[in-house]
Design goal:
Elements (H helix, E strand, L loop, with lengths): L1 E5 H11 L7 E3 L9 H5 L10 H14 L10 E3 L2 E4 L3 E4 L1 H9 L3 E6 L2 E6 L1 H17 L1
Parallel strand pairs: 1-4
Antiparallel strand pairs: 2-5, 3-7, 4-5, 6-7
Length: 137
């Protein structure tokens, strides 16, 4: 899904939301299949959705979705972000496996695009992550 932001801006924002080494956003690689839910669910990993990285990721993905074109997305985000000026990014696969496993998101197709919708638990999680981020400033 097209977003009105450059890939550079997205990476800079990701670093603001999570100061660790492993950014919660990745370049789309040729072997990736971001529009296939089976790809996101393959090779489960044991991570916790309560980490700063996971919380920063949720805030980042929702912020990027609010910049979707032609219409902003609310309470959901796409599996792929096509940036202004070229370049495609996607959510971190390990983070998405955790969000799916913990019931924070569900998935659906919007045309041919895979979209992750926040569940009720996901909405509460995002609200809590937002509160924590605002107290950290």
């Amino acid at each position: 899904m097209k977003i009105g932001l450059s890939a550079h801006w997205v990476r800079t924002r990701a670093k603001e939301l999570y100061a660790g080494d492993s950014l919660p956003i990745s370049d789309v690689k040729a072997a990736d299949e971001p529009f296939q839910i089976r790809w996101w669910e393959s090779q489960p990993q044991d991570e916790s959705s309560s980490s700063e990285r996971q919380q920063g990721a949720m805030l980042l993905y929702l912020e990027l979705a609010s910049q979707a074109r032609p219409e902003p997305l609310r309470d959901c985000f796409p599996a792929r972000f096509d940036c202004d000026g070229g370049g495609s990014l996607r959510p971190d696969k390990a983070i998405m496996k955790t969000f799916l496993r913990d019931g924070l998101v569900t998935h659906r197709l919007l045309g041919w695009q895979l979209i992750f919708d926040l569940t009720e638990a996901g909405l509460m999680y995002a609200a809590e992550a937002g509160k924590r981020a605002s107290t950290d400033v």
